[in-house]
Amino acid sequence: MDDSYQFIFENNEKWVSQKQRQDPEYFGRLAKEQTPEYLYIGCSDSRVTAEELMGLDPGMVFVHRNVANQVNGIDMNVTSAIEYAVTHLKVKHIIVCGHYHCGGVQAAMRPQDFGMMNPWLRGIRDVYRIHQEELDAIADDKVRYDRLVELNIQEQCLNVIKMPCVQERFREDHYPIVHGWVFDLHTGRLKDLHLDLTSLAGDIHKIYDVTDNEWVVNAKKPLPEC
Ligand code: ZN
Questions:
Q1: Is 141 a catalytic residue?
Q2: Is 99 a catalytic residue?
Q3: Is-contact 70 156, C-beta < 8 A?
Q4: What is the distance in A from the centroid of ligand 1 to the CA of 177?
Q5: In the chain, how long is the greatest CA-to-CA distance?
Q6: Is residue 97 flagged as an active site residue?
Q7: How far is the CA of 216 from the centre of ligand 1 (A)?
Q8: What is the β-pairing status of strands 93-99 and 61-66?
Q9: Is residue 69 left, alpha or beta, with left meaning phi > 0 and alpha meaning psi from -120 to 50?
């Protein structure tokens, strides 16, 4: 029998001992509740570990990961995670974090049948369609690939602010703020794309804004009276 995974349980025991040595009350407190300020939506890629790369401890970030960090409106998995984080945990920040050298984005750039993955990759192919002019003007394959990674993050941020729960919560207390970040596997660094979602959304809010609300953006300006 292959028991090569047993080292994981040994690691877990070491981790428990270390935490208890540092703070005997650690697990008692951890079990009480979670009050994370951040919702992280990232790629499932094994090299892009949310908590570790952000230096956050357990309890500090609510995490949802899928292939190529998609926010698809009919994916109950991601929409449930967002609804719970926004409505119940009341996170202050939603981070959509992609990464360069993303296999999902790379696969979407190839006109190839990926079976079960096709509907998923179509979301990224649609991002390419929306930004085709800009992307096709980039001669260098790697630069175009990197740019699609960034544009995919941008579009998923826009998908987050289309959600009623996000719009409603923002109307109440000006949170959550939505951020688009990218992780560079070569350097280990996180980069803030500083997306201006207000201008990126343009005037399309007239159909996406389901709560008669302003856009959920980084803007600090007060909302108009309702
Ligand atoms: Zn990826």
A1: no
A2: yes
A3: yes
A4: 23
A5: 66
A6: no
A7: 26
A8: unpaired
A9: left
Q: How far apart are CA 160 and CA 158, in angstroms?
A: 5
Active site residue 102: yes
Neighbours of ion ligand 1 (CB under 5 A): 43, 45, 102, 104
The CATH code for residues 35-218 is 3.40.1050.10
Strands (E), the chain: 38-43, 61-66, 93-99, 177-183, 190-192
Could you tell me which of 48, 158, 56, 162 has the C-alpha nearest to residue 104?
48
> What phi and psi values does residue 177 have, to the nearest 5 degrees?
-95, 135
pTM: 0.90
Given 47, 88, 110, 129, which residue is catalytic?
A: 47
Q: In a 3-state reduction of DSSP, which class is residue 46?
A: coil
Q: How far apart are CA 99 and CA 40, in angstroms?
A: 13
Report the separation in Å between the CA atom of 212 and the middle of ligand 1, taken as the mean of its atom positions: 35
Q: For each of the chain's 226 residues, which pLDDT tens digit applies?
A: 899 999 999 999 999 999 999 999 999 999 998 999 999 999 999 999 999 999 999 999 999 999 999 999 999 999 999 999 999 999 999 999 999 999 999 999 999 999 999 999 999 999 999 999 999 999 999 999 999 999 999 999 999 998 999 988 988 889 999 999 999 999 999 999 999 987 887 776 777 777 765 554 444 444 445 4
Domain ranges for the chain: 35-218
The one-letter amino acid code at 140 reads: D
